[in-house]
């Protein structure tokens, strides 16, 4: 049976019991819900249910994948972001709570019927969250990866969000297509420096490396975005970018040197300066 939402105490093969004990309770519960196709509430209400051999084997297989290091989000194929469900797979980064700060800052600066661009959209988390929250807004998102764009388009459709997607290497498609200017440009680009030990640790080992690192000093994508934004921003438009925990000063310097006004950084829930931005000074 399922004794509670966090543990299996009977009805499961000894192999499953051995592997599940190595996981934290949250991972254990998420994987068990996925194996049994149950919601968390369903798991609790069926606490007396006895797992058959097939169910126990499915759960054990999922747990072994987690023990091998595979992120839970990839195992179950989804992650919540800004209160919305998102499909995720190995083609896209897993949306993280820290990035919700970028969405909130963008919403604060987006005027009625405003236009916003999400650069390097990945799963579409930022663009879809914006479009879902602000139905009046014109949201455009771009990415260089066709595989990522396919995931993002499904997430927009599944969440009933209206987003225009472009296949583009940063500003290339905008310059070729003559797309109108934006009130806000937001981006969570690759910002981990080449050789950073974090790339070989934890969940990052399974995420698409091109979305994590610029294969340089961690600032090259941010430089490209800062330098290329002015022709694509409306007067007084904002550029907002997520970056690494130790990059805020460098990003502010990039913005200031490029002539942006009101340059500043904002802290995430952990008190780390996670997003920096500035306003076009004309």
TrEMBL record:
Sites where the protein binds substrate: 188-191
Record domain Methyltransferase small: where: 99-195
Group of enzyme by EC: transferase
Tagged with keyword S-adenosyl-L-methionine: yes
SUPFAM superfamilies membership: S-adenosyl-L-methionine-dependent methyltransferases
Release factor glutamine methyltransferase N-terminal domain boundaries: 25-77
InterPro entries: DNA_methylase_N6_adenine_CS (IPR002052), HemK-like (IPR004556), N5-glutamine_MTase (IPR050320), PrmC_N (IPR040758), RF_methyltr_PrmC (IPR019874), SAM-dependent_MTases_sf (IPR029063), Small_mtfrase_dom (IPR007848)
Alphabetized PROSITE patterns for the sequence: N6_MTASE
EC number per UniProt: 2.1.1.297
Protein purpose: Methylates the class 1 translation termination release factors RF1/PrfA and RF2/PrfB on the glutamine residue of the universally conserved GGQ motif.
UniProt-recorded name of the protein: Release factor glutamine methyltransferase
Gene: prmC
